[in-house]
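S.,

Sequence below, as promised.
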Amino acid sequence: MSRTNLVAAVLGLTFATGALAPSVATAQDGGETINALIVYGDDPCPVSTGDQITVCARKDESERYRIPEVLRESASPQNEAWNNRVLAYETVFDSGTLSCSPTGPGGWTGCTQNMIDQAYAEKRTDASVRFAQLIEEERARRLETIDEEAEATQADVEAAEKEYFEDKAASAPEPDHSGH
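The prediction came back faster than expected:
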């Protein structure tokens, strides 16, 4: 039995048209069918009917599109990430001038450059640099609205001044032109 068929059998799945599908088995004693399903997250489990027993195994939503657990781990070299293979090839001939290694002529000469590169990398990812960027972005966002706020404030001030002068003019006594 192949590993995939073994996994399918353990999970209660059968192959149907090239895809894994829930298996429906007939119970030996009652003639009922058993529907064994895996549901994810908050998905509802189908309700059992009179002649069908539905059993659901619930897994986290994060497991929905993942490879089944029994197939995830393998010691096979074909399953090694390509990135790890590339990194292995990059370090094979890492010796000699500017390599920062104890082997080869001038291997020590690359250590200073490695320290400089590391310092710049730390500076790029430093939290204080990120805070400075966030502060600058917030200032720019506030400056975008300053003209609108200034116009609104100016309109409010002018309306208040007009109201003040109208009230002052209305409450002032009429000048006496009679000459007395």
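The beta strands are 13-16, 19-22, 24-26, 33-40, 52-59.

Coffee later?
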